[in-house]
Structures are given as structure tokens and as C-alpha cells.
């Protein structure tokens, strides 16, 4: 028979438990150091624990489109609002419908709470409209007519890169002939934009936006003349109820407190044609801008409108970027553009990034009116948290008492393992707050409390496997190594089932229940880490000590108390030699 190879480890053995302990120690030190370095030494709290803001939005449809307030559009609005708020890094925000036409938004208190409140109800209806006329924002008795071809000061906005340009100064187009602009053919037809090879746009079979001074034109001219952009109510109501295919009036802020008013043609490009948008800092001009990339269809439309506008004179060579009825920029066009565009103006870093965030996630399918904005206190959640922590402490105390009474010295291993698991859970939750926006709410606290039982169960499985080996008559050191493969399989299967349940619960639920599922899944993974890298190596080391190795009565591994069998002794069987049997011996 071949001799066994020297240095071969027994099945399930772990010859160097110090490596595993060093690994988990390094991980704990690194995570704890990262927590203190980041400055976030406590987990972020959800709205039920930290308080916050609850906003009620009521959907409103444009006149004649009441059927737009339906379940599909409301669910789309909920999804867009949730993505907007999460895009700002606000965690645990709850967005859900209430009834047929209301949406409830709960935003926990945090660094981006104010930004989230401003964005949740922003419709973000974006249109690119040709400019027909522009003047200062004050109401006028009557427009001053000047020849269409007369020289007038050019606006200060000029293209840069894709399309750049700031809104014009008020004085730049004072005296522009409103009547001439209304009577002149619009540079774009009412329908969708299409490329034109001619230098000057020609009239087609499609009616122009304002071809003749009919009743609609007169009403628009009267509305433009009376519009006072210095009045916030008039600015908001200026473009309400106007379809994208119709001309309209709008206001735009050139500088703080300085407004211009515009007559705008039908929309040629819409927000849905924007593929991506983001705030960026222009190093050359030293200003914040919003860059936009168009879809394939949007690029064709944008190329068509800029090709036509580049052939016009001021102000009809300009297009207005209109967001929720307000002109945010009105650059002039001097060349054909297609792939991308930019919005420039009086942006700072926050406003540029906010607008890019809104445009990236899309416009809401409905307009919303803010019904109420309520501040939620954390008093009720604090009381519930206190009650939950008391219940958790009582449960943990009972678990520890059971371990001490039943497992005696082994309870020290279990308590230390629970402590390591609790420390890792706390540190990781603190780091996940700024990293992915995780916030601790009451259901998440419940998930952490439930995890105490899952973690303790893993220890008990391993301890019982060791005791089974001792009852078979083995000593502690081989019992620890032989029990590990059997216990390991049971622990992995049990934790896999728990993690699978947590993952399914996280996917199919929304709101606070996801906090419970996330915490349960996280603590289940940590249970595997702690058992493999801490509990098993510690047991290997303790098996080498006299107190546990000799089966001290208080070690919890006393062979007599466990009813261990005496060690089995193997005896060799003697077999008779083959051949005939002597009759005398028989």
C-alpha cells in the first residue's frame, strides 16, 4: 500500500486560519477608515426617521385634452419624477399615485432636498421655435412699425460650437416691426421641418403660421402687445393651452430682472428629439452651459430648421429654446447645424446640471399643479425606531442568553461573530449612503433585526456538526475540520434561499419594502463572509487550546455531557491460509 504523502491536508482542513482572520481584519480596518475619511459616520436616514417633505401634485390637462389624464400617463409621470429625484442622489424618495389625478412625492431630508422639490413638478416641455418678433417685456400701447429690411442692432447672441448664444439684450430689438413680422411668411411651415434646397424658404401647400392678418393673427398681436413679462402670473399664463403646431407668445429673462417678450412660430423640434443633455463648463467662455445631443430624427429636424433660419434677417434668423413656456435662450443662426446644440445663458453649476438632468430623463406627459407641500417630522418614526430597537435588543439578549446556557464557552465565538457582523453592517450602510443613496428606514431596521436570527442559525449549524463528530468519539481538532464541509453546505443552501427571497422581494416591490429586502440581502451576504473568514478560523484556533481541546465542562464541548462514544479501535481479522485442512486440526 502506498504511503500517504507528507504535508497533505485532511479533507475540509484549514491549515492556516491566520490568513482568513488577517483578511477580514484588513477589510474591517479599510472599511472603517473609509467611513471616517468620507465624513459619513452614520447611515443616512429615510423620511420616516429623519423627516422631510411630502409634496402632492395634481395633474391638469390642456383644454380639450381632458382624456390625457389617464393611468398610462400618470404611471409614466411617476417613473420620470422618480428618475429625476434619484438622479440628484436623493435616496428613499417615494413617488406613487393617489387616486386618479394625484401624485404623492415623499423626499427625505438631505443635501439635495431643495433641488428635488424644485424638479418634481417641472413639466420640462422643451420646444425649439423660430422667433418672429421680439421686444422688451413691458406692455406697449402699440407696436412701432419700421421697414422689414431696415438696419437694426444685432443681438449679442452668436453661435458657438453646436449652437451657442445668449438671449438678446432688451434694447437690441426695440422697435422691431411686429406687424411686419406677423404678416411676413414664417421661415418654417406649420408641419414638421423638412430640408429645403432654396436659399429662401418658399411657401408650400401647407398654411403658414401667420400668412394673413386674420382674427387669429390679430388676437396674437393683441396678446403680445398687452403681455407684461414683469408680472410672474402673466409669464406663467402666456403659453398655456397652446399646441406645439400653433404660434405663441412667451417671455425670456435676459438678465436678473430684465425680460424680453417674443412671438414664436410653430415648434420644429421637441424635447423628445433630445437624446442626452448635461450641464458642462465652457472653459473658453468661462460659463456654464447645457449641451444636448439629438436623436437621428431630431438631428434631421434641427438641420432643416437651422438651414432655413440661417437665410433670414434678424430676428427671424433666431430660434427660441422654450422650456415650460419660458424662453431660456434665443441664439441667432448663421450656419446649418445638426448633431448637437447647447443652451447658454445665466446658468450656474446647479441650474445647468438641473436642466441637463430634467432634459435627459424626459418631459412629463402632463402638467402638474402643486396642491400642498408639507414638512414631515421624524417624531413618529423616532418613536417607532425606539420601540424597534428595544425589541431588537430584547431579541438579541435572549439569543445571547440561550447561547450562553446551551453552548457555554462556544457562546463566546457566536457573540464575537455577531459583533463582527454588526460592525460590518453598520460601516457598509454608512458608506452606501453617499455612494448609492441608500437610506435607512424602519423596514430596513426590521431587516437588520431579522438578520440576527439568520446569522445565529449559521453558528448553531456549525456547532452542532462539531458536537456530532465528538459524539462519534473523535477529538476536537479533527472534529472541527470534519464538521466544516457538512456545515458549510447547509449554511450556503440556507443563505442562498434567504438571499433569493430578498432579491425577489426587492425586484417586485417599491418604496419602503425595498429597504427591508435590501438590508436582508446585505446581511445574508455578510453572514457568509463572517462564517467563512471569522467563525471557522476562530474555531480552528480554539481547538488547539487546552480549555477547548481537552473538553472542559464549561467549554460546551465536554464529551461526557455530550454522551460521546469511546474511541473506536480497529482490529485486524486473521484469515486461514488457502489449502487442504488437516483432519486432526479439524
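Q: What amino acid sequence fits the structure above?
A:
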Amino acid at each position: 500500500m502506498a504511503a500517504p504523502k507528507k504535508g497533505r491536508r485532511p479533507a475540509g482542513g484549514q491549515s492556516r486560519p491566520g490568513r482568513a482572520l488577517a483578511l477580514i481584519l484588513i477589510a474591517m480596518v479599510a472599511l472603517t477608515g473609509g467611513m471616517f475619511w468620507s465624513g459619513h459616520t452614520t447611515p443616512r436616514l429615510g423620511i420616516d426617521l429623519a423627516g422631510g417633505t411630502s409634496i402632492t401634485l395634481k395633474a391638469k390637462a390642456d383644454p380639450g385634452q381632458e382624456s390625457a389624464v389617464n393611468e398610462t400617463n400618470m404611471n409614466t409621470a411617476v417613473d420620470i419624477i422618480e428618475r429625476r429625484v434619484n438622479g440628484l442622489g436623493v435616496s428613499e424618495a417615494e413617488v406613487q399615485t393617489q387616486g386618479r389625478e394625484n401624485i404623492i412625492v415623499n423626499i427625505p431630508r438631505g443635501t439635495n432636498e431643495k433641488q428635488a422639490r424644485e424638479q418634481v413638478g417641472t413639466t420640462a416641455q422643451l420646444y425649439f421655435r423660430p422667433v418672429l418678433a421680439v421686444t422688451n417685456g413691458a406692455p406697449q400701447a402699440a407696436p412701432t412699425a419700421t421697414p422689414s429690411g431696415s438696419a437694426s442692432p444685432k443681438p449679442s447672441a452668436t453661435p458657438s460650437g453646436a449652437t451657442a448664444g445668449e438671449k438678446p439684450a432688451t434694447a437690441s430689438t426695440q422697435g422691431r416691426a411686429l406687424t411686419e413680422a406677423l404678416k411676413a411668411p414664417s421661415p418654417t411651415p406649420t408641419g414638421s421641418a423638412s430640408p429645403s434646397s432654396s436659399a429662401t424658404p418658399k411657401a408650400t401647400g401647407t398654411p403658414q403660421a401667420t400668412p394673413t392678418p386674420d382674427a387669429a393673427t390679430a388676437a396674437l398681436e393683441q396678446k403680445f402687445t398687452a403681455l407684461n413679462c414683469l408680472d410672474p402670473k402673466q409669464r406663467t399664463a402666456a403659453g398655456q393651452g397652446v399646441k406645439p403646431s400653433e404660434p405663441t407668445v412667451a417671455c425670456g429673462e435676459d438678465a436678473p430682472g430684465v425680460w424680453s417678450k417674443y412671438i414664436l412660430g410653430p415648434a420644429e423640434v421637441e424635447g423628445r428629439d433630445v437624446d442626452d443633455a448635461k450641464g458642462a463648463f465652457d472653459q473658453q467662455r468661462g460659463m456654464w452651459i447645457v449641451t444636448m445631443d439629438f436623436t437621428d430624427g431630431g438631428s434631421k429636424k434641427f438641420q432643416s430648421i437651422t438651414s432655413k433660419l440661417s437665410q433670414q434677417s434678424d430676428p427671424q434668423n433666431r430660434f427660441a429654446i422654450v422650456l415650460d413656456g419660458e424662453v431660456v435662450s434665443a441664439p441667432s443662426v448663421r450656419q446649418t447645424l445638426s448633431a448637437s446644440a447647447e443652451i447658454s445663458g445665466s446658468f450656474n453649476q446647479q441650474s445647468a446640471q438641473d436642466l441637463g438632468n430634467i432634459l435627459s430623463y424626459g418631459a412629463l406627459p402632463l402638467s402638474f399643479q402643486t396642491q400642498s407641500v408639507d414638512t414631515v417630522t421624524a417624531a413618529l418614526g423616532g418613536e417607532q425606531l425606539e420601540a424597534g430597537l428595544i425589541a431588537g435588543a430584547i431579541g438579541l439578549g435572549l439569543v445571547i442568553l440561550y447561547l450562553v446556557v446551551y453552548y457555554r464557552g462556544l457562546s463566546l465565538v457566536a457573540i464575537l461573530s455577531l459583533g463582527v457582523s454588526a460592525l460590518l453592517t453598520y460601516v457598509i450602510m454608512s458608506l452606501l449612503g453617499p455612494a448609492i443613496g441608500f437610506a435607512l428606514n424602519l423596514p430596513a431596521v426590521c431587516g437588520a433585526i431579522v438578520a440576527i436570527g439568520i446569522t445565529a442559525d449559521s453558528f448553531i449549524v456549525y456547532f452542532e456538526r462539531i458536537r456530532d463528530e465528538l459524539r462519534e468519539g473523535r477529538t476536537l481538532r479533527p472534529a472541527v475540520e470534519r464538521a466544516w464541509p457538512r456545515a458549510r453546505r447547509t449554511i450556503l443552501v440556507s443563505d442562498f434561499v434567504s438571499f433569493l427571497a430578498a432579491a425577489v422581494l426587492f425586484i417586485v416591490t417599491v418604496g419602503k419594502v425595498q429597504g427591508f429586502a435590501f438590508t436582508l440581502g446585505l446581511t445574508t451576504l455578510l453572514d457568509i463572509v463572517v462564517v467563512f473568514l471569522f467563525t471557522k478560523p476562530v474555531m480552528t484556533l480554539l481547538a488547539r487550546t487546552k480549555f477547548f481541546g481537552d473538553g472542559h465542562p464549561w467549554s460546551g464541548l465536554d464529551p461526557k455531557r455530550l454522551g460521546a462514544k469511546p474511541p473506536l479501535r480497529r482490529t485486524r481479522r486473521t484469515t486461514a491460509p488457502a489449502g487442504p485442512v488437516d483432519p486432526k486440526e479439524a
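Q: And what stands out in the fold?
A: Confidence is low (pLDDT under 50) at residues 142-211.
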